[in-house]
Design goal:
By secondary structure, the chain is mainly alpha-helical. The protein contains 4 helices and 2 strands, in the order E-E-H-H-H-H.
């Protein structure tokens, strides 16, 4: 099983379900939501393709390649989209 060291300093494995890992995934999810990959330029791309590009661009290759961790991150992105829209982090589309 792979492990990933995030920029937050937390090392996570695909079987680690602690609150620290969830917090680290939330941190990466918010980095994504604040990035250009969540904006209008990439609006025509599916969310998973945008997340893939973000992870590769930011050097999160191990997180991208670990299917379990990737799915958990995508879940955190989806869970935080509403808050990102409400706070204006992600602009609402007309």
């Amino acid at each position: 099983m792979g492990s990933v060291r995030l920029s937050t300093g937390v090392t996570m494995t695909s079987t680690d379900h602690t609150a620290g890992v969830r917090s680290a995934l939330d941190d990466v999810a918010w980095q994504f939501l604040r990035s250009e990959f969540a904006g209008e330029i990439y609006l025509d791309w599916p969310i998973d393709r945008r997340l893939d590009a973000f992870l590769r661009h930011r050097g999160y290759d191990q997180l991208h390649d670990d299917g379990t961790a990737y799915e958990a991150l995508l879940d955190r992105v989806m869970a935080n989209i509403g808050a990102a829209l409400q706070t204006g982090v992600v602009p609402q589309q007309n």
